[in-house]
Each structure stands twice: as structure tokens, then as C-alpha cells.
Specification:
The complex is a heterodimer.
Chain A: E1 17-23, H1 29-42, E2 47-51, H2 56-68, H3 73-97, E3 101-105, H4 108-117, H5 122-128, E4 137-142, H6 145-155, H7 174-196, E5 199-202, H8 207-221
Parallel strand pairs in A: 1-3, 1-4, 2-3, 4-5
Helix pairs in contact in A: 1-8, 2-3, 4-7
Chain B: E1 8-9, E2 15-16, E3 51-57, H1 63-76, E4 81-85, H2 93-102, H3 107-131, E5 135-139, H4 142-151, H5 156-162, E6 171-176, H6 179-190, H7 208-230, E7 233-236, H8 241-255
Parallel strand pairs in B: 3-5, 3-6, 4-5, 6-7
Antiparallel strand pairs in B: 1-2
Helix pairs in contact in B: 1-8, 4-7
Classes of the chains: A alpha/beta, B alpha/beta.
């Protein structure tokens, strides 16, 4: 299924809106979406935050599998799609039907980028997520590769096996593997900017500058008054 | 012509060879393998020298009985075998069982869960066994998974893309047993009808027995649909075990263990 054929939630007449953030680990996207959430909540709006890879049942399977390093590119892709589907059907769609602004820290594009780098066919992965509508707004936090890498390395002593793409045997050195892997993911993201109409935010700027950009874009594109919590 | 030894049924119904006939073991001719769709990354198809035989059918259609006899026969003929079934992978089988018990996952999620399990078995059991030159007997394959989902209204092109990772088997047999006969066999074996095999999640009928019959008929309709696309053999499973097995052996002999 081509990206252009997919519809956004607004085009499907959902009363709610979905805002997604995408970018490399260490691009600062999680910080930005949390700040956006605060801002929206303080205006008394119906807001819900959802994270990639977080549904209960699937979590038990993925963490076990990751520990045991049992996953191949295909099962890695499928297990994440399962997790996403669980969240999508059980949480995202009902909230969007109920008129919420749903904030997603990563959406299907994370899978499109990662799984293709791992060797899965691009059309296959896109087809897998064919049930999912597109976000109404997708912010892409574009930082220089070295900046993202440094942020991750500064904050953690240990890189995780899959996060560093060690399963791909890019390099026996975990830091070098991480560098190569993230570089390939960045290339995939950059190629999707036009296809999916990402709103690109310069993530090399200070946090506050980025947040102003994000808030302005959201205010310009959504009629925020429509999402007010019912008065009690 | 160098023919495969013709087994004669023993008194217990199992297979016996005449002593002389067991010695000469012939190697099946390797046939080119292909994936249904995009396939799996990094698989060298030419190295899959074994054969993949799939037996499909509802619960109590006689799949496992037939497979057990085929294994006995094939090994008697000197071929190494390996067996796989749905929902047995170490990756997610535990979670799948929990999900089924609690009936807590929605359609797409459950469908992807099964696909994950299938992919895990394909990569970790089926492909290694095929590389090693075994005749792999699969107790159900992607068709059951697809038929169940199609009965529940899932998008067929979506399912075809999803299962484009699957290797095309060398032979697929669908044991077709009438819903009435299946119900009788279920009662003899388990004394009750299974919730999922009766399609109780679909609200087809108020009574369990009626739901079972409607559901099994619908599953069969989907198998007929799938047959048009994937072209497998529908075998009449309403007959005695021996008769069905003789037909399977004849067909496997022709398709799978063809001699040079």
C-alpha cells in the first residue's frame, strides 16, 4: 500500500487528531512531545500520550525475546507490528473516536525506517501497517547524526543490543555498530520526509526554540478549542 | 522404473514393509523453492534441498493421525522427517495462549501475533530442516491462519502481503471433513466443542452446536477461495484412515519424492 493512498484521521472523519513525533534516538523528540503534552493539558484539552512498544501482553513477549536475542528481522518487525496493532485497536482508535488529541512518541514510520534497514522489503512492511491511518501531524526532529549519537552516549553507559543494531553484524564494536545503524535509519527517515509530509524541526536548536516552533505549528493547524474537556 | 516400496497395512493398521524392500534409499530430486511474496531477508533458496508437505484441516479432521503415519512411512523409506505445527514456537506461544484464554486481543493484533509465531517457526524450524534435506511435515500452515481471519472479515490483500513471507510448499493437502462429521468426532475425542473452532467469538448462532456447524462451513468456503489462489489438493477426509493415508502416500510419492 503506497503512502499516498493512506488517509489521515481527519480525512476519515475522526473527531480526534493524532500528532506523532519521529526521529533518531537522542534527537530530543520525547522531550518535545512531553512539553507539547503539558501545554495542551494546561489549556484544559483532551490529550492522551502513547509510546511505541508499550502494550502489556506484547511487552512480555518482546522483552523475553530481546533478552534471548531470538529475533530475526522478520520476527522483530512482526512483534513490533503486533504491539502497535494492540495499542492502535484498543487505545488510539477509541480515543480518536472520542475526540482526543493523541500524542504518539514514534508511529509507523519508526518501523518503516528500522525494519527496512534490517533487510525487510519496504512494501511488505508498509503493507503490514496497512490498517493504520496516517497522523494528522508528524514532526520529524532532524539533528546531525553526531549530535544524536553523543546525546545517547552521554546519558547511558551501556547501549542496548537491538538499539545498536548488533543483530545486523555491522561491526563487532557496539559503538561503531550503533553509529552505522543510526546513520542508515537517518537515511530512511530523510527519504520519507516528502512522501509523508513530515514537518521538519531543526533539532540542533535549543529546546525552547524547538518547542515554540512545535506549539505554533500545532496552533496553526488544529482548532484547539474543539478539544476542550467537558466542564463538570 | 525404481519404485518406492509399496507398504501393506499391518494388523494394527500401521505400515509394514517386506524386509528386502527397505534397503535401497533414493534421494528425492531437489526442486526450486520460492516465496509467495517478498519472502524473508537473507535466505538462500537454492540451499533448501528438503521438501515441505503441509496437511491442513479442521480440528479432528485427522491431520495428526495422518501425519504420524506419513512420518512412519517416509522414515521407513529412509527419508529424514521433521514436524511442525501452529502455535508451538518458543517466541510467543505462551503469550498467545494467554491471549486466547482471556479473549483480550482484537482481530488485527491476534492475527499479527499468529503471524509472528508462524515466522518464528518458519525461520527457526522449517528452513533449517529443509537445509538439512529433511521432508518437513507441517500440521497446518498459513492457510488455516488466513481462513480464520477471512471468516472474521479481515482484508484478503492485507493477509496475502503479510504471508508473503511464507515459502511455497511442495505439496498441500486439505483434509475436508463435513461439519456434521467433525462435530461427531469432536464429541468422541474431547466430549465438547472448542470455543474458537465453533466461532463463538462471532455470534453466529445462539446455540453452540449450531454455531459450530455454521462456522465450519464458512471456514470451508474460505479454504475453497484460498485454493483458487494457492492451488492445493482437497482430500476427502470423511473416509477411513487407511484410505485417506493411501491417497496421501500416492500423491506425495508422485509430487514430493519423485525419483531421478
Amino acid at each position: 500500500m503506497a503512502g499516498t493512498m493512506r488517509k489521515r484521521f481527519s480525512e476519515l472523519n475522526f473527531p480526534g487528531r493524532l500528532i506523532a513525533v519521529e526521529g533518531l534516538d537522542g534527537s530530543g523528540k520525547s522531550t518535545q512531545i512531553r512539553l507539547l503534552q503539558r501545554w495542551l493539558e494546561l489549556q484544559g484539552l483532551k490529550v492522551f500520550f502513547s509510546e511505541w512498544n508499550s502494550s502489556e501482553l506484547v511487552k512480555s513477549a518482546t522483552s523475553k525475546a530481546k533478552k534471548m536475542e531470538l529475533l530475526t528481522p522478520t520476527t522483530f518487525s512482526l512483534i513490533h507490528a503486533t504491539d502497535f496493532a494492540d495499542r492502535y485497536e484498543r487505545q488510539l482508535v477509541p480515543l480518536l473516536r472520542a475526540g482526543y488529541i493523541v500524542l504518539c512518541d514514534r508511529y509507523i514510520f519508526t518501523a518503516f525506517a528500522r525494519d527496512v534497514v534490517r533487510g525487510c522489503a519496504a512494501e511488505w512492511v508498509r503493507g503490514l501497517y496497512g490498517f493504520a491511518a496516517l497522523p494528522d501531524l508528524t514532526f520529524f526532529f532532524k539533528a546531525r547524526l553526531e549530535v544524536s549519537l553523543q546525546r545517547i552516549l552521554d546519558h547511558r553507559q551501556q547501549l542496548k543490543y537491538f538499539e545498536a543494531g548488533m543483530d545486523m553484524k555491522l561491526s563487532p564494536d557496539i559503538h561503531e555498530s550503533f553509529r552505522i545503524f543510526q546513520g542508515k535509519i537517518l537515511d530512511q527517515y530523510l527519504a520519507m520526509i516528502d512522501e509523508y509530509g513530515f514537518l521538519v524541526v531543526d533539532a540542533n536548536q535549543p529546546i525552547e526554540t524547538q518547542q515554540s516552533v512545535v506549539r505554533e505549528m500545532v496552533a496553526a493547524r488544529l482548532n484547539l478549542d474543539a478539544f476542550a474537556l467537558p466542564r463538570t | 522404473m525404481n519404485r518406492m516400496p509399496t507398504p501393506s497395512p499391518s494388523e494394527s493398521g500401521h505400515i509394514r514393509f517386506k524386509r528386502r524392500e527397505r534397503r535401497h534409499v533414493t534421494t528425492p530430486v531437489p526442486t526450486p523453492k520460492r516465496f509467495y511474496g517478498h519472502g524473508l531477508p537473507g535466505v538462500e533458496l537454492h540451499r533448501l534441498v528438503g521438501k515441505l508437505v503441509v496437511v491442513e484441516g479442521a480440528d479432528c479432521s485427522g491431520r495428526s493421525t495422518q501425519i504420524a503415519r506419513l512420518v512412519e512411512w517416509l522414515e521407513g523409506c529412509g527419508h529424514a522427517t521433521a514436524q511442525v505445527g501452529l502455535k508451538l514456537s518458543s517466541l510467543v506461544s505462551h503469550e498467545l495462549e494467554r491471549a486466547k484464554q482471556g479473549n483480550i486481543l482484537s482481530r488485527i493484533t491476534l492475527s499479527l501475533f499468529y503471524a509472528t509465531d508462524f515466522a518464528d517457526q518458519l525461520e527457526n524450524t522449517i528452513l533449517p530442516a529443509l537445509k538439512a534435506g529433511a521432508i518437513v511435515l507441517a500440521d497446518r500452515y498459513i492457510y488455516t491462519l488466513m481462513a480464520r481471519d477471512m471468516v472474521r472479515g479481515m482484508d484478503e490483500p492485507w493477509l496475502r502481503n503479510l504471508y508473503g513471507i511464507a515459502l511455497e510448499p511442495d505439496a498441500v493437502f486439505y483434509l475436508n471433513v463435513s461439519p456434521e462429521q467433525l462435530a461427531q468426532r469432536n464429541f468422541t475425542k474431547n466430549r465438547t466443542l472448542d470455543y474458537w473452532e465453533s466461532g463463538m467469538d462471532l455470534g453466529l448462532a445462539r446455540e453452540w452446536f449450531d454455531s459450530f456447524l455454521v462456522y465450519q462451513r464458512r471456514i470451508y468456503e474460505q479454504f475453497q477461495r484460498l485454493q483458487q489462489h494457492y492451488g492445493f489438493e482437497i482430500v476427502n477426509g470423511n473416509r477411513p484412515i487407511e484410505e485417506v493415508n493411501a491417497e496421501l502416500r500416492r500423491k506425495i510419492e508422485a509430487v514430493v519424492v519423485r525419483k531421478r
